[in-house]
Amino acid sequence: MGGFGHGPAVPAEAEDMVLAARNARYGRWLFLLYFVIYAGFVGLNAFAPQTMAINIAGIHLAVWYGLALIVTAMVLAMIYVWLCRRPSA
Amino acid sequence: MIPQPSSLAVVVFLIFVAITLGLSFYFGAKAKSASAYFAAGGQIHWFVNGVAFAGDYLSAASFLGICGMLSRSGYDGFLYSIGFLAGWVVALFVIAEPLKRLGKFTFADALNSQFQSRGITFAAGVSALVVSIFYLIPQMVGAGSLIYPLLGFPQWMGVIIVGVVVTLIVTTAGMVSTTYVQFIKGSLLVFFSGLLTVLILMRGFTIDDRPEATEPQTIVTLPDGKVLINGWPKGLGAGEADLRPVGSISKLPGDVKSTGPLGPLAYLSTLQNSEIVLWTEKTETVDGVKTTTYSPKPTMGAEVMVPGVHPIFKGLRGDSLTAKLDFISLMLALFAGTASLPHILIRYYTVKDQAAARQSTVVGIGTIGTFYVLTLFLGFGAMTSGTMDLTDSNMAAPLLAKSFGDLLFAIISAIAFTTVLGTVSGLIVAASGAIVHDLITGCMNVSLSDHQKVRVGKLSALIVGALSIVLGILFQNMNAGFLVGWAFNVAASANLPALIMILFWKGTTKQGVTAAIFVGLFSSLGWILLSQETMQKVYGFSAAAAAESAMVPFSQPGLVTIPLGFLTLIVVSLLTTRHESPVKTQG
After folding, report:
1. What is the ipTM of this complex?
2. B103 and B217 both lie in a single domain
3. Is residue A75 less than 8 Å (CB to CB) from chain B?
4. Does residue B49 belong to the interface with chain A, where contact is any CB pair within 8 Å?
5. Would the CB atoms of B269 and A73 count as touching at under 8 Å?
6. Which of A19, B264, B480, B564 is 20 to 30 Å from the Cα of B523, by its Cα?
7. b/e per residue, A38-47, with b = 16+ CB within 10 A?
8. Over the stretch B411-433, which tens digit does the pLDDT of each residue have?
9. Which domain holds residue B247?
10. B535-545 pLDDT, tens digit each
11. Residue A19 Cα, gap to closest chain B Cα (Å)
């Protein structure tokens, strides 16, 4: 826990614009993927609410889709960190 | 119901405050430089920062509001859980890394890294300050309305206790102590929500066939102010009555009386095939006598496992296009708002590099996502455990805990109250950072030494803390959840277009950024002030009069004002692009 208050942070990750651009590209694709899934959920709720009552294994799609949105966010987040790791020298 | 706060809860709360203040003074002796005070010196471990994200983000609205809504209206509360979490995807995939790379203390640094423009600094500083104060109001109002049922102190004392404790935390060690307060709060909240969920699953469902579980209840307020509950004077003594706690199952699948322990999925599918007793509320005033009647409404579980029961989401089951647009607008504001909240963004400056920023967001998403999954069980548990207070849905989670014993009630009450501390301290650091870095040194060009920055920062924190106490008392009758929605809409409209475009469009100019921030800020504020929801809840119009006088078609501005921010940025940038070369790095 020690070591606070000793001047500004020094980034340990070197400024590598190639890596930064690569990470931003991964980020954009993963964002787009999640956005489509989220927009699908919002759209179904707004314009086809009856689909939310479809039963899958005894539980409504509304619950499955909601849980899936939360779990997908966690999984994509881990994939992103894995993709952004530094290439092993 | 007449609250019966536990003195044990006060003890648990005091222990928490003693630990956090102790930590604050310990770190306060070390955090002397501006970097340490405003950004914890960039020395926070990514895991600690990740959990602190949860402590920063999960406000009382998340914990008590969502559980309360789930317990009264079913699935609808979960829509907020989904939207609040989804916003973190924007933060991680789009904002985190460049924000960390380009900035040092505030998000204005990142916006301004290629322009060195005082206009941008001013706009971003004002926006950070306005959004933080907007977000502070519901937190303080929440502290006031929670303290009486949870700890037994009057409302104004709740506001003052939170204001004073948080100001002490922030002025001693700034972001360092704030981080640890948030870390402790985030861990406790998720751990005890998990424990409560395990207990709910182990208890399963049991039919409540007592006749009083399904008898209507009334509150009658006589012209002289006397209150009768179910025909008796209100009170806990002999010859007096209090509202009975409600919420029960009236039929289980397979005609069993009790299910015994259930797994998480079996819990949800059993609930969906049961019959649950929900409650409707109707108020009438005749000759000065106000009668509120609560009537039981046996409802199929399948009905509460889809959206559209709560008044906010009722429109989803109808044909009105504006109701659907209002819903889309709310879900868009939740999605876009998270990554635009200043108190969340500044947490990125407390870790050492971009890799740590990414890792801590993943920990944050994991912690916050786990909590939001648990809200589903806490809400449904409260709905069916016979513990709900018909007059206060915010108490659903603590009262549910009470059904497992007084100790758990005390702990959950104390945690519920301390959720306010974690979020408020983050907001005060964000606001004082915006004052010192953006407005005083950045915009007014006052040059301050490192030591002076810390002193001015502490002074600003003191002023913002005092202001939040005053606002918390002034706004004490406003609905806290409603105000949180405002803050998300305003943050997303003012900050997101600038943050995104500066990263992805080379044609962005400083005038474009400044204009987009101000247009987003004022258009979303203006829209809110002219909406039906505000007319009704703030100006006190009747529902019909509010619908008539509202000047905007639906209440949530995001769907219009977020794109408006983008459009403003693009148009103004195109118009001003001839006067300067936009992407040239100066200085």
Report:
1. 0.90
2. no
3. no
4. no
5. no
6. B480
7. beebbebbbe
8. 888 888 788 888 898 899 999 98
9. 211-316
10. 887 777 887 88
11. 11
